[in-house]
Amino acid sequence: MTLVKFNSDKNKSEGTLIPSFNNVFDSIFTDSFFSGRDIAVVPAVNICETPDHFQIELAAPGLVKEEFKINLERNLLSISVEKEQENQQQGKNFSRREFSYTSFVRSFTLPESADENNIEAKYNDGILLLQIAKREEAKVTTRQISIS
């Protein structure tokens, strides 16, 4: 199973002592203006393979199962969430609003041995668990061979 990767930090210099022009502005805006704000992070994923299936565990606490979208297009499995919350507090002469957005997409390329018609998903205690069965011909069979 292959995790689809992309580089969101393509403007950042690697291995240099002088930051690039874009890095200076990125650090000013993210450190100064947005300090104290929640920064979106892509949830961690564990992927394992057993003789009968592939298993994906995605850590996404604080969500409910209805907020997840799981799509399969050809052999690309995508897990996404888009959530918006609005809190409003009013005082004597002021009003404060805070908007909170949570969104992410994780995509995985399924191997040819995966059975795309046999995928199960469960969400329990902040962990989204996907079980992807293997095709019968891809399952490892072992047998004892006698010596004559």
From TrEMBL:
Domain SHSP: 36-148
Membership in a protein family: Belongs to the small heat shock protein (HSP20) family.
Protein name: HSP20 family protein
Superkingdom of source: Bacteria
Gene3D superfamilies according to UniProt: 2.60.40.790
SUPFAM superfamilies attached to this UniProt entry: HSP20-like chaperones (SSF49764)
Organism of this sequence: Pedobacter insulae
